[in-house]
Specification:
With 315 residues, the protein is α/β, with parallel strands linked by helices. Helices cover 39% and strands 19% of the residues. It is globular, with a radius of gyration of 20 Å.
Amino acid sequence: MFDAEEFIAESIESLKSQIDDIAIIACSGGVDSTVAAVIASQAVGGLLHCVYVDTGFMRKDETEQIEELLEAQGINLVTVKAADRYFEALKGVTEPEQKRKVIGELFIRIFEDEQKKCGAKYLVQGTIAPDWIESGGGVRDTIKSHHNVGGLPEDMTLTVVEPLRDLYKDEVRELARHLKINVAERQPFPGPGLAVRTLGELTPERVAVVREACAIVEEEFEAAAERGEMEIPWQYFAALLPVRSVGVHGDVRAYGETIVVRAVQSMDGMSARYSEIPHSILQKISTRITNTVKGAVNRVVYDITHKPPGTIEWE
């Protein structure tokens, strides 16, 4: 049985022995990176420098929420606005694995820039077991490269430290509850963010469509769960597909793309079953999305694929 208190105590001692100089950590506000940051902060105190990178692929109002969350934990945070750099680096990149590798490399380059400012020698990451298992290596097939594993450049100069490497999501959530961090029940969000929920070309306009659609899905599901109309899924979001079809807005022909809504139940992310959502809620989501992003999207579908054979995210 997993013992959160024992794990935290052992991790703090381990981090003290591993980190003898300045360390830097990427704080995304998600449960993995936040738990890693809090434990590392307890272990090495002022040696830890926390950085949040606004890639331009975050959810609606997420940057402000993350800054408030981490400040509430007493973690000193530097926010790097890097959206322009990411969109430039990803111009013309549509293949999912290549996206993740470009995002991973730029992630490290930005941290190397911050490293030079603070003189860091270590990079603490919130990597968990599914990240490196799915990223492949050895006898394991690559399902998808996680930006903090398969996307790391070979010539990086930081020494990587991963205190959560052998844990699964349910265990990390238990740590968050034990540490009284207000992210324990937060749904998972991929490291590359909306970049892997925007299939095909990445432009500010297409990412903005996904951002709005994801916000609508989250709002409607959470409101319905609050009303007792459904069980809140483990993970739920929208993705934009590069599939164009003919539709109608009013009396005008519309040629727009397709939003797919995805919701699953899972324990650790290694397997999942699609959530059975009442049609009335899906209908409301569809109407809101097509009315909100008129012209860009004219079709909304719901994904009923388990994992396996699918993955939870589409890329």
